[in-house]
Design goal:
By secondary structure, this protein is an alpha+beta fold. It has a single domain, classed as Nucleotidyltransferase, domain 5 (2-Layer Sandwich). It is built from two helices and four strands. A four-stranded mixed beta sheet has the order 3-2-1-4, covered by helices on one side. It is globular. The chain starts with a strand and ends with a helix.
Length: 88
């Protein structure tokens, strides 16, 4: 199971994916507050599906924005940290 963060047209979608199928999803309207909303949204997604962090093997980001765009960098930093911890 993995979490896919999709950034498209000022909307951020946090999806719980199982075998490339969207199992559950939360949307965040990008209002310059992703850094405050992303981790609580992931936590809510896990709780709604009765999962814990160890159940998520990987987190990835897909964005229609340049990698220098702050929203993309925030999402990528969260995904990189998640994936690093999961490898340990």
């Amino acid at each position: 199971m993995e979490i896919l963060i999709t950034i498209k047209e000022k909307k951020v979608k946090v999806a719980l994916m199982e075998n490339e199928v969207e199992r559950d999803v939360l949307e965040i309207v990008e209002e310059h507050s992703l850094s405050q909303q992303l981790l609580p949204s992931i936590d809510e997604l896990l709780k709604r599906n009765q999962l814990i962090s160890k159940d998520i093997e990987k987190m990835r980001v897909e964005s229609d924005r340049d990698e220098s765009f702050t929203t993309t960098r925030i999402a990528q930093a969260a995904a990189n940290a998640w994936n690093y911890v999961q490898q340990k």
